[in-house]
Amino acid sequence: MNQIKENIEIINKNIKNSVKKSNIKDKCDIILLAVTKTVECDTIIKAIECGIKDIGENKPQELSRKYDIIGNNVRWHLIGSLQTNKVKSIIDKVYMIHSLDRISLCEEIQKRAKKDINCLVQVNITKEETKSGLYKEDVMNFIKCVSRNYPKIKIKGLMTMAPFTNDEDILRRTFRELKALSDTILSENIDSVSMDYLSMGMSNDYEIAIEEGANIVRIGTSIFGKRNLT
Prior knowledge:
Blueprint: H1 2-21, E1 31-35, H2 41-49, E2 54-57, H3 60-70, E3 75-78, H4 87-90, E4 96-100, H5 103-112, E5 117-122, H6 136-149, E6 153-159, H7 168-187, E7 193-199, H8 206-211, E8 216-219, H9 221-224
Parallel strand pairs: 1-2, 1-8, 2-3, 3-4, 4-5, 5-6, 6-7
C-alpha cells in the first residue's frame, strides 16, 4: 500500500507541475488512468483506496473479470484493441472505449449498446505498422460517418500512442499533431462529437503529453511497478 500511495502522490505532483508548464489555455483536471494490465484485483483495490478513480484495461476479458470482482465504484476504460466479438462482454461495464478505429466496430457497438457509449477515436499519428488506429488524414471522414450513422456512439475525443523513444522532439511533435487534429475536428461542429479528451501519454512520457494538451494519461508501470509477464 505504502509504495503505491507514494507512487500516486509523485505522479499527481508531476501532473500539477506539467499543467503549470503547459501552453494550453483551457487548463482542466487531468484524469490519471491507472493501467492494470497483469495487475491483480487486490493490488488494484489498494490503488483505488489511494484515490484512483479510473481504471484502464487492455483486454476485454480481463476488464470483465476484474469488473465482476471490483464492481462499478470506479470508471472502467477499455484502452486496447477491441474485437467485434468481444464488444458484448464489456459494453455494459465501460465508461469509455479508447480504441474506436473502424466501421465494423461501430456497427457492433451500435447493435449491442443499451445506452450511449463514450468513445475516443484511436489515431496512429506516426503510421507505425505495429500500432492500431486510423491515419490522421482518415479521421475526419470517419468521425463524420459515425456521427451520421451510429447515434449511440458519442465521440468524446482522440487517443494515440507515441513512439517508444526518449527523443523529446519526436514525442512533442506526435502530441502536437493530435492536439491540432482535435482542434480542427472541434471547429467542424459535428453532431454528437466533442473533443473533450485527449488520451495520450504513458509512464515514460506523460509529463510531456500534458504540456502538449493531454488530459487523460494512461499510467501503469509508474504506479504498480514493472509488469509481471510470466
